[in-house]
Amino acid sequence: MKTITEENANPFIELLRRAEEQNWCVQPYCTTCGARDFRSALREISGELGGPLVDALADLNLNELTSYAKWDDAIVIAVRTLPLSSQVISLLEAWLSRAVENVRFFRCSFVQVCTTLTGEVYY
User: Fold this and answer.
1) How many domains does the chain have?
2) Is residue 26 part of a domain?
3) Which CA distances in Å does 39 have to 75, 99, 118?
4) How far apart, in Å, are the Cα atoms of 14 and each of 10, 17, 60, 97?
5) Are the C-beta atoms of residues 46 and 52 closer than 8 Å to each other?
6) How much helix, strand and coil, in percent to the nearest 5, is found in the chain?
7) Region 89-118 average pLDDT
8) What is the DSSP letter of 108?
9) pLDDT tens digits, 29-61
10) How far apart are CA 84 and CA 41, in angstroms?
11) Which pLDDT band, with edges at 50, 70 and 90, does 5 fall under?
12) Among 28, 69, 119, 120, which has the highest number of CB atoms less than 10 A from its own CB?
């Protein structure tokens, strides 16, 4: 039986917790394992068209997210998992509207995702 906290928990945060507990690799460019376990679990959250993953990412508690050691690498993998570019754009818009909540998130993740999408380096 799930508690109220578990029922309302963000699936992406729960995945990060699981990855940390089980010592999964979350390096986006890992040449040893390709972050296989994390990517596999991420696909379960994502569903066929990525909608549940977009919802989970857009609704992140940024302070809770940045409390995990490898949160920034995990975000890069998650965003690259999204099948539609419009999902990425709506996600970036959702994050931008909340950027003041957590400067560390904005500096590391938002900028890294923008750099990945455009090929330009942002500072």
Assistant:
1) 1
2) yes
3) 11, 26, 23
4) 6, 5, 11, 24
5) yes
6) 65, 0, 35
7) 70
8) I
9) 899 999 999 999 999 999 889 999 999 999 999
10) 19
11) very low
12) 28
In the block, which residue shows the tokens 């729960």?
Answer: 14
Please list, residue by residue across 37-71, b when 16 or more beta carbons sit within 10 angstroms of its beta carbon and e when fewer do.
bbbebbeebbeeebeebbbbbbebebeebbebebb
Please give, one letter per residue, the 3-state secondary structure of 40-88. Answer: HHHHHHHCCCCHHHHHHHHCCCHHHHCCCCCHHHHHHHHHHHCCCHHHH
Task: Provide the domain limits for residue 58.
Answer: 4-118
**Contacts by 90-99 with C-beta closer than 8 Å and gap 24+?**
90/54, 90/58, 91/54, 91/57, 91/58, 94/58, 95/58, 98/62
- Structure confidence at residue 114 as a pLDDT band (50, 70, 90): low
Evaluate whether residue 95 is within a structural domain: yes
The verdict on residue 61 lying in a domain is yes
Residue 35 token pair: 């972050």
